[in-house]
Specification:
Order of helices and strands: HHHHHHHH
Number of helices: 8
Radius of gyration: 25 Å
Strand content: under 5%
Structural class: mainly alpha
Largest sheet: none
């Protein structure tokens, strides 16, 4: 005998937690933290490989932190602002087209739904009802791919990127504060690789991706970057001295 499902339970199941709504800040935050760890650790390792003292290594690291955080904030703001400008331009154009030729826009939306699998009669009905509710939002989402969840947010991206860069950059700097000069490079490398592995795992969990794959990916690239700058620092440091 069929039992009517509990309404509260059914409603609860519709409130699913998705990861796409985090994409705006998560991408910028992961990029900032990863760049902060890798670039600052590479800088510290490169300067340390040139046989410089603690003061010079610390100065290079702090300078890299400040410059990198500001650069990340500016870069994210400019790039995401460009995306936001393009989105707004498309929305303005779409609003004008809806005002001047609504029949064409209705037919265009119907064709979109047909391509997605609806028969034409049903697609026409869906397009009519959706446009009656909010024509611009419907066309923005289904024609342009612009939604509230994925819409560009320049300030959010800039703050997330700069803040996480600073946190990431601080880790390799702190790793050399309490170790002897001879341990600068191994301490920085160990701290940075561990931090990158944790970052990859946390970001993968936050985004619903595979933890091991993300951790290995960021750790591998971080190791390559530090190895390259250590080699450069050693070669140039030896040449200069």
């Amino acid at each position: 005998m069929y039992e009517q499902p509990d309404v509260a339970t059914a409603n609860d199941k519709t409130r699913e937690n998705h990861f796409i709504d985090r994409i705006g800040w998560l991408r910028a935050a992961v990029l900032g933290a990863n760049d902060g760890i890798v670039s600052t650790a590479s800088l510290v390792v490169g300067v340390a490989a040139a046989e410089t003292g603690r003061g010079e290594v610390m100065l290079a690291g702090v300078a890299g932190l400040v410059a990198g955080a500001m650069s990340m904030a500016a870069g994210e703001y400019v790039s995401v602002s460009s995306q936001a400008d393009s989105e707004q331009a498309d929305l303005v154009r779409e609003r004008q087209e809806l005002a001047t030729d609504p029949d064409f826009e209705h037919a265009e939306l119907t064709d979109i739904y047909v391509e997605r699998g609806l028969d034409r009669e049903l697609a026409d009905q869906v397009a009519t009802q959706m446009m009656q509710k909010d024509a611009l939002a419907t066309h923005a989402r289904d024609e342009l791919g612009i939604s509230e969840l994925s819409q560009a947010r320049p300030v959010q991206a800039a703050i997330a990127s700069a803040a996480t860069f600073a946190v990431g950059a601080a880790l390799p700097i702190l790793s050399i504060m309490f170790v002897p000069r001879t341990a600068f490079i191994p301490a920085t490398v160990a701290t940075s690789l561990l931090s990158l592995a944790i970052l990859g795992s946390v970001s993968a969990r936050a985004g619903g991706a595979r933890v091991l794959t993300a951790a290995v990916r960021v750790t591998m690239w971080g190791a390559l970057a530090m190895g390259a700058t250590a080699l450069v620092g050693h070669l140039f440091g030896t040449t200069i001295s």
